[in-house]
Specification:
The structure is a single chain. Helix content is about 35%, strand content about 20%. It is of the alpha/beta class. The strands form 7 sheets. Strands 4-3-5-2-6-7-1-8 form an 8-stranded mixed sheet, with helices on both faces. A 6-stranded parallel sheet has the order 9-16-13-10-12-11, sandwiched between helices. Strands 17-18-19-21-20 form a 5-stranded mixed β-barrel. The termini are far apart. A hairpin with a 6-residue loop joins strand 26 and strand 27.
């Protein structure tokens, strides 16, 4: 484990030193880099140190570009390409040392590559050297992961960096904030500037904002991100000429593995673009989030490479302390589908037994394996099929690889390769045109007609990838190109995202996806006119928003998924008509392609659907009577006494399973209007066995005979139970009865002659002594015709509390 700060020379000096070691004789040193640009630049720097061209002693391999030769001994390779190499050759006989650069970045492919390399070393190559290099200060977990490997630490030659906090005014756009702080830094500090922004769109907008504000004559502006041309990248990292200074607008690529000479000032937007996978939509998207404290520290360190420097941070110092210490590892938040395929190809199942700092969550891997089975990449046992192994060799995302291989079988390899190349990048068209993928393909084929919205850097990369894929596939099997729409190609890659239009309003057009989710388009979007879509890119909340898609015809869906489409019975509740409907539906997962009435549905199916209707309508849709509610409360009270296993009869439990207590009564009914003559008392009693019915009156008698001789209902919904009775009916009584075989004393709600509450008590004797005198004083003037004796204990209780024709005296 080698720990050294940025600029200490670990990327460009360590590999050459290792390659010169006698134990590396005849074997290569592979340096794994997370980014293509860093691999190319580091290879160029090392080759220049030896006075050679790249491709001699030092070379590189990245997607769509390689410079290696028969004498290459140090080879820089991206993590993704190394994974394919390791899957093909687990013994790595030609390799003497693997160097994992920038392991602290915690890229998914980097974590997986290290885990597989450790297992390959243990199983096949105990002589294989492994070196993990990092600029992080937390090396101990990596030392443990590498089996208590030796730790070498270099402090480097960094200088102090002054932090200046520049939070933007509320509502100010990012590019305006950055341009303002850049102008301040140019005025206050010498040297060149490195500005960290989350991505290319922000870099372009910030460049325009800086240029509009006016650049000093001695200052050059240089963007830096992975998709720029080689000449543009070289211009960005080359030191500014004497008497000139430079502003480098960079993405996260400039954080590590890459040294930009002459930088003395850093302006940090505080934002990072990180992969986030949404299991609900099955989509992995790049989200712009606050950068972690570790990332901010690395960015600031770029200002102290040559001399004391300055870092302007566009956020509050107090906010900084609340940010996460480290970025979330991609293995916990990224797209699990490529990982699941790589693990299956390695024979590692869900990753059990592999050395990960953070094992991949089963909650992500298991659904990914299920989707790989749908795509035909894994068999029912989870082992890779021939199709799955072909996907691994292709080097595309498994969805796109499946699309390309399936299209090749139908003679559509050229169209599929172009579409896969477009979907593998960020999109070659900017703006709203990117929703309909037909526009992208037209721009790919006729770039001169695309206009200013064309991103030529993205176009050139897509064209190169398409050519590479076509070369891998060879000629179409049928000797020519077949026919098929973009939508049909997309549907093969994203079968769970075939979308059927549901309804529309002036603002939004809503679609239902094959996976059951809801998605939408703006109604003024031309794609919203299409009844069927195949969706490649969506995100957002609920409903999801469709970002890139293409139209597809029902006949194309039928052709592509003939084996998965089947007629199914559906007896269900219709909330619009508030009734049970019975249909036969021809379905592809959650989508209905055709339907017709289902004659004579089974009675139990109708009853189950009606029960679902009750659940949706709520317990208030049932015809509750006073008697039914009273019985419900009595059963619940008996259950609280814990005498046997009494059923739960609260509204939530009754609503959860209406069939459990209403099954017999639901037979023959199918509408909400037919629920009103249900006998809920009989339904509740059906939940009790013979013994419970017998014990119910013993534990919770329905009525109490009070001193007046009248039987009064007991309210068991209260705790403890209550009897509501006119005060005059309780004259002479000193105690309240008990229920539950004497375990629970009742309370009395004593009422006025008008039936209004006067007092609630559980101790009648105390009430007559302490409470009654005040009640008597207040009530006897209001109700002079009713008895209000001075001594209620000797007065006769009576249900007739009013004397006729005369005033009642004391």
């Amino acid at each position: 484990m080698l720990q050294a700060p940025p600029g200490a020379g670990k990327t460009t000096r360590v590999p050459l030193a290792v390659a010169a070691h006698r134990q590396m004789a005849g074997r290569k040193v592979l340096v794994l880099e997370p980014r293509r640009l860093a691999a190319r630049l580091a290879a160029g720097h090392m080759a220049a140190q030896r006075g050679e061209a790249v491709g001699a002693h030092v070379g590189y391999r990245v997607r769509l570009d390689r410079k290696v030769g028969p004498k290459t001994r140090v080879e820089l390779v991206t993590d993704g390409l190394f994974l394919r190499q390791l899957q093909d050759d687990p013994e790595l006989q030609a390799v003497g040392c693997l160097i994992f650069d920038e392991v602290h970045e915690r890229g998914l492919e980097s974590d997986l590559a290290l885990a597989l390399a450790l297992e390959a070393r243990a199983a096949f190559r105990p002589d294989l050297w492994l070196i993990a290099m990092s600029a992080t200060l937390e090396a101990e977990p990596w030392v443990a992961l590498l089996g208590d490997a030796p730790l070498i630490t270099s402090t480097g030659r960094s200088h102090p960096v002054e932090l200046r906090w520049r939070p933007p005014p509320r509502g100010e756009r990012l590019e305006r904030s950055v341009a303002r702080v850049v102008k301040e830094a140019l005025r206050e500090e010498p040297g060149s500037l490195l500005v960290f922004l989350p991505g290319q769109a922000e870099i372009r907008r910030t460049a325009r904002a800086i240029e509009q504000g006016g650049l000093p004559e001695d200052t050059d502006l240089a963007p830096l991100y992975g998709e720029l041309s080689r000449a543009q990248q070289t211009a960005a990292i080359t030191p500014a000429p004497a008497e000139r200074r430079k502003i480098v607008l960079a993405s996260a690529i400039a954080e590590t593995s890459l040294t930009i000479e002459g930088i003395r000032v850093v302006v940090d937007s505080g934002l990072a673009r990180l992969p986030r996978y949404d299991p609900r939509s099955g989509m992995a998207r790049l989200e712009t989030l606050p950068a972690s404290r570790a990332t901010a520290t690395q960015r600031a360190g770029r200002a102290g490479r040559l001399a004391p420097g300055v870092c302007y941070r566009l956020w509050e110092e107090a906010e900084h302390r609340a940010r996460p210490a480290q970025p979330t590892p991609e293995i916990l938040a990224g797209d699990p589908l490529p990982l699941a395929l790589d693990l299956a190809l390695w024979g590692a199942g869900e990753g059990e037994g592999l050395a990960f700092l953070d094992p991949p969550p089963a909650s992500l891997i298991q659904p990914a394996r299920a989707l790989l089975q749908t795509l035909g990449a894994l068999d029912e046992a989870g082992a890779p099929t021939a199709h799955g192994r072909a996907l691994g060799r292709l080097g595309l995302h498994p969805r796109l690889g499946h699309m390309v291989l399936s299209a090749a079988e139908r003679g559509l390899s050229r169209e599929a390769c172009r579409l896969a190349a477009l979907l593998s990048g960020r999109g070659i068209l900017r703006g709203q045109e990117r929703r309909d993928l037909r526009h992208h393909l037209e721009a790919f084929l006729r770039p001169k007609e695309a206009g200013p919205s064309l991103d030529r850097g993205a176009l050139h990369e897509a064209q190169a990838l398409a050519r590479q894929l076509e070369a891998q596939l060879g000629r179409p099997r049928r000797g020519g190109e077949g026919t098929g729409s973009i939508g049909q190609l997309l549907a093969s890659a994203y079968p769970d995202r075939i979308a059927k239009r549901q309804d529309q309003d002036p603002e939004r057009t809503r679609y239902r996806l094959a996976n059951g989710r809801q998605a939408e388009l703006p109604s003024d979007e031309p794609l919203a006119l299409e009844p069927w879509l195949a969706v490649a890119d969506l995100g957002g909340g609920s409903p999801l928003r469709i970002y890139r898609a293409a139209a597809i015809a029902p006949a194309e869906i039928e052709e592509l998924f003939e084996e998965r489409i089947a007629w199914r019975r559906r007896v269900s509740w219709d909330p619009k008509t508030k009734s049970v409907i019975a249909r036969q539906e021809r379905r592809l997962d959650a989508l209905v392609l055709d339907e017709r009435p289902l004659p004579d549905p089974a009675p139990d199916e109708v009853a189950a659907a009606l029960a679902e209707g009750i659940r949706r309508l709520g317990v208030g849709a049932l015809p509750w009577t006073t008697e039914a509610r009273a019985l419900q409360a009595r059963i619940a009270f008996a259950g609280r006494q814990r005498e046997g296993a009494w059923p739960a009869v609260d509204d939530r439990h009754l609503l959860a399973d209406p069939l459990a207590w209403l099954a017999g009564q639901l037979m023959g009914r199918s509408k909400a209007s037919e629920l009103q003559d249900l006998d809920l008392v009989a339904g509740l009693l059906s939940l009790l066995d013979h013994k419970q019915r017998r014990d119910l009156d013993r534990i919770a008698p329905p009525r109490l005979t009070v001193a007046s001789g009248r039987a009064v209902p007991i309210d068991y919904a209260s705790e403890p139970p209550v009897v509501s009775v006119k005060l005059q009916e309780m004259f002479g009584a000193t105690e309240l009865p008990r229920v539950a075989q004497g375990a629970v004393r009742l309370r009395a709600e004593l009422l006025s002659p008008a039936g209004r509450p006067l007092a609630v008590t559980g101790d009648l004797a105390h009430f007559w002594q302490e409470g009654y005198p005040q009640v008597r004083a207040e009530m006897r003037g209001r109700y002079p015709r009713h008895p209000w004796p001075e001594d209620p204990l000797t007065a006769a209780a009576s249900a007739r509390t009013k004397a006729k024709g005369r005033k009642v005296s004391d």
